[in-house]
Here is the input.
Amino acid sequence: VSSGFRAVQWNPAKLIYDGVLIAAVVLYIGTYLLLAYRLDPPKDEPAAIDLRIRAFGTCAFLMLTIILSIGPLARLDRRFLPLLYNRRHFGVLTFFVALLHASFMVEWFAVQNALPDLYAEFTRIADYGKFIGFPFKVLGLLALAILFLMAATSHDFWLAFLTPPLWKALHMALYVAYGLVVMHIALGIMQSDRNPLIPAMLAGGFACVTVLHLAAGWRERAGDRCNKLTGDGWLLVGPPLSIPDKGARIVAAPDGERIAVFRDGTQIGALSNLCAHQNGPIGEGRIIDGCVICPWHSYYYRLADGCAPPPYTEKLVTYRVRVARGVVEVDPRPLPHGTPAAIRYE
Amino acid sequence: MRRAHRSFHRLLWPVLALAVALGFTMALVLRPPPDTAAVTAQELKP
Here is the structure.
């Protein structure tokens, strides 16, 4: 939760996350280069640079694959939620790994005084009409530009400035970047190098991301179906004890938006299922000391009124709740942000 | 995620996945045979 501007709100969890991330990248690239030098030592400088291009390129592809898998994995199994916590730093690091991949490629041409050839690759218009022979470096450059845009706007300043819905929509361009990277490899190195590991890595990574998204999307679809309504238009949730203590049941309003109905002992309250920070699924969080904790980044809000406790200022939309004939009901018409609406039942 | 975001996500994903799967398959099938791959490698490298 934020109460003022700080460039990066470091905490032990973020430091550990970033430390593990950097160590994994160093380990991967170090192992790749070590094995390559042992198995087939490069004969000249361009060959040595080529190895670095491959090491950093495959690393960036694997990092992108993991980043895109984290979201659906966290939705399918809560044990993956810690991976989601600092995913933005993961993305920024991926950009820098990809940038190094691109800079080694420029260096490869530069050490052979062949930079005009590189320029020609980008400007031979006729090649843009081919499929095999398409200037695949352009695809990589476009993906790098998208990664730059993601990294540059990853800070909470941009999240607040653009608002979470627009920011999330903008960051979906990462899927486009992934598609461009797959085609960059498929039309580039996969055409010239017959190593079966290249198509295996591409197909495996892409299939993994696709299957995970399909599985998570299939599971999510059920949550969009509107709950039954009472005669006066309130949503039927169920008996109070059907809501887990210190947890929530998520119901869908007629407009498809989700409402998280929490129970804290004998207190019941309904909040928007969208965290004010990144639209995270508040209803998958837990209640500690009367506050609902978002599972994504631990932003917290009082169940009683949807307000973050002072000095924080975030507020959620709340909904009226009642218990009629032993069944919890929620009015799907939202109340203004931070309106006290929780009730106690006997 | 908002409803609109979920809907957009569900629309974008299959379209993108199909396009990339098709592109990847074509790139794999249309690869030059191994004997010409060495020549092409010089053109495409790195």
User: Anything to note?
Assistant: Chain B touches chain A through 32 residues (CB under 8 Å).
